């Protein structure tokens, strides 16, 4: 028997309800499930960034996002498609969502473009790509299929075939509105946090297509762009993007509860205000080396704002600074994920004075030439100490008893244009030996 198009639509509709409709009746409070899907991973790095690659940025933001939800909501279960740097096939990602009856599926990605000036965020919902540009993003995010072993798992979807389009429209109409509403919330929050939004778009992503839940794919920005790529690699940038996602989720969840008559029952976990540890600052020491690396060096694996202190003939490398135990633990986890397995927490007593004749100075110049006091090379820095080492003359500014004062002097020297200046531990006017 030949089915008419109308019959086909009805049939698809029935199938759709049979397969997926049950979920909405089975949902009780206590089990709003969000599946967070950090894109790419393992052998698939995703887009290459100016500082950090897509797979690392999105994993980091995803873990932060999930953790924030877990800390705030008792009635939300967070499931990740991956929590480490592993390769996952696209169908596995959606399977995780479907198996767990997700109420929301959020796939997190970063964009890249040949045109390095391209920037901004965008959030996709399942649909038929309306523009060439959107098709390009879909092509790139789907391209991982080529890395997978069983490509036959992916049915052909031809956006030009009206029947296929109708079939998908039916299948996703129930979730489409919710997907679009969450996508809009996400983009609105990005804008509030000073990002440039390219808007909510529709595209045929496999990872969205096979989802039996509201599903969005968020592009956090273009990591091929110098500014945005750098921003997304910093602690600050990742935090800011996570907070936007969180606020969007708060609003989505509130609306979900309201629609499901759960408003009165909503219990938020009491917010525990964490006390800072008095008188101490935590930093992560991740490297000790006889080599002095520049801030952009590959050895630092994209960590930004690294502090370097020379003591004797080794350089110690520190990342981050906090007096909150939770942040300290997060920083350590982050640095370890970056590949510094031996990283540990270094505790600094605030304003602790060095003992005896010990003091910190700022090395800002090393040269084969011997310069006189107030040489033009010093950029106006006064009372410069010169130390001869081998054939080299090393030039130092200032002298301070506390690390905090040394940081201030370092800043002053860097502002004079000596960007590679660093802190060195001295014993009187001599470099320390240990
Ligand atoms: Zn991606």
UniProtKB/TrEMBL annotation:
* Domain MurNAc-LAA stretches: 94-250
Q: Which UniProt keywords apply?
A: Hydrolase
Q: Which InterPro entries match?
A: MurNAc-LAA_cat, N-acetylmuramoyl_amidase_3
A molecular function GO annotation: N-acetylmuramoyl-L-alanine amidase activity
Q: Return the broad EC class.
A: hydrolase
Catalytic activity, as annotated: Hydrolyzes the link between N-acetylmuramoyl residues and L-amino acid residues in certain cell-wall glycopeptides
The answer to keyword Acyltransferase applying to this record is no
Q: What is its EC number?
A: 3.5.1.28
Q: Does the keyword Hydrolase apply?
A: yes
Superkingdom to which the source organism belongs: Bacteria
Show the SMART domains listed in the entry: Ami_3 (SM00646)
Task: State the protein's name.
Answer: N-acetylmuramoyl-L-alanine amidase
Q: Which organism is it from?
A: Moheibacter stercoris
